[in-house]
C-alpha cells in the first residue's frame, strides 16, 4: 500500500505539478521579456526631435517687412509673453510654450511665407512682442516676470506634440466663446 502511494504521488508530480512549475517560470521569463520590450518602446517614444535642426528660425516682422534670424527658444519667450498673461501658473505657461514650439516647427515644415518661417502677426501666424514693448507694458518687477517666461520655455526645451512622429498643427485659442468646433469644419483638413 505504501508503495502504491509513492507511485501515485510521483505520477501526480510528473503529470501536473512539474509542468505547472515549468510553465510558471517560462511565463515569468516571457513577462520579463515583454517588460523589457515595453521599456525599449517607451525609450523610443520619448526621444526628442532633432533640436539642432531647428536651432534658429526666420521671423518676418510684418511692420517693417524685415526677416530676423533668431534662436528658436528665444523667439518662443516673445511668443509666450505675447500669448499668455505672465501671472498665470508656470505649468500653464509651460503648456503654452510647448504648443507654441509645436506650431512653430509645423510652420517651418509647412511654410506660408516665401522668405521666412513664420511672421509676428497673430492673425496670420503667431503673436510676438519685443522684449522692450513687453517690459514697458508690465508693472512691478519686470525682469523677474521676463525670467519667469524664460524659465518656462527652458524647462520645456525640445518638447513638442507629435502624431505619427510629425509635429501636429497645434492650433490654440485664448477664448472659445464656450464652444469648440472640429478643424475640418472650419479650415478643412484633419
Ligand atoms: Zn504669417
Q: Kindly state the mean pLDDT as a whole number?
A: 83
Across the major sheet, the strand order is 2-1-3
The assigned structural class equals mainly alpha
How many helices? Answer: 6
The proportion of residues in beta strands is 5-15%
How many strands in all? Answer: 5
Q: Unreliable runs, pLDDT <50, ≥5 residues? A: none
Distinct compounds present: zinc ion
N-to-C series of helices and strands: HEEHHEHHEEH
In helices, the fraction of residues equals 40-55%
Spatial extent as radius of gyration? 28 Å
Main beta-sheet annotation: 3 strands, mixed
Q: How far is it from the N-terminal to the C-terminal residue, by CA?
A: 79 Å
Q: Which of globular, elongated, flat, extended, rod-shaped describes the shape? A: elongated
What does this structure look like?
The protein has 190 residues and is mainly α. The protein has a domain at 53-173. Helices cover 53% and strands 9% of the residues. A three-stranded mixed β-sheet has the order 2-1-3. It has a two-stranded antiparallel ribbon with strand order 4-5. Helix 3 (90-109) packs across helix 5. The protein starts with a helix and ends with a helix. The model has no long low-confidence stretch (mean pLDDT 83). Zinc ion binds next to loops. Residues 112-113, 119, 121, 124-125 line the site of zinc ion (ZN).
Structure characteristics:
190 residues; mainly alpha; 6 helices; 53% helix
